[in-house]
């Protein structure tokens, strides 16, 4: 049976422990934001808060990895494994998938046959659940053809939900207008926030949630609703949780899920990557779930 090495992006928000244990090659996210480089803070979100405190009007720019970035990881993995399986950020929001595909064509013909690419149609913890599924399939000793087929069938059944605290960063990034941002701020003051989800690879609002000042509480209720049928049928559910430097909220969501549901496995809690986090801002909280 061929050995298979995984390639994915920093946007999957996998923990260092998972990356090391399964020898995953990570394509880094690219952030250009010189104004925050010298600011104090352990992560980008803390630096963003410091930027606000100082009244500095600035916004970071993210960029997709280049084909050369993927090429280097392909070459690294096929030196260690017989095959390389690449799982990308959704192609609907980024050109990363195109870079991954182009990178494959830059390999020698014999090596191109060793690289396989799957579009996660997701990001952050949703992309991570696709990677974790791939790990399960590899451990079960399935062949690469079967793994790719199963992953393609699995991708539409990974569900991510996210909520953010302030629309100012989406506004600054140009993703929403000033008028829409002001409307969202007004609703937030009334305890109403939009809940976001991925549909066919695109992040869209799934509705408004009242009493939404407690974001962790809102997401727990969504998790409860989303997984009700699976839990009643006795199926195992895996979730992953990511946050914009709101570890307290993320841990509260984790602890409540583990306390209330015996058949839910929390894979991990981790901080959100810059590509997703810079436009959504500090205190963003997300979870993704799937059946296992």
Structure description:
The structure is a single chain. With 292 residues, the chain is α/β, with parallel strands linked by helices. It has two domains: 4-29 and 65-156, Rossmann fold, CATH 3.40.50; 159-291, Hypothetical Protein Tm841, Chain: A,domain 3 (2-Layer Sandwich). The protein has twelve helices and twelve strands. It has a six-stranded mixed beta sheet with strand order 9-8-7-12-10-11, sandwiched between helices. A four-stranded parallel beta sheet has the order 2-1-5-6, with helices on both faces. The protein has a two-stranded antiparallel sheet with strand order 3-4. Strand 8 and strand 9 form a beta hairpin. It is globular and about 60 Å long. The two termini are 24 Å apart.
Termini, distance in Å? 24 Å
Query: How helical, in percent, are the residues?
Result: 40-55%
Mind describing the biggest β-sheet? 6 strands, mixed
Which structural class fits the helix and strand makeup? Answer: alpha/beta
At the fold tier of CATH, the topology name of the largest domain is Hypothetical Protein Tm841, Chain: A,domain 3
| Shape-level CATH architecture of the largest domain | 2-Layer Sandwich
Molecular shape: globular
The CATH class of the largest domain = Alpha Beta
Total number of strands: 12
Counting structural domains, the number is 2
Instruction: Give me the side-by-side strand order of the main sheet.
Output: 9-8-7-12-10-11
H/E element string? EHEEHEHEHHEHHEHHEEHEHEHE
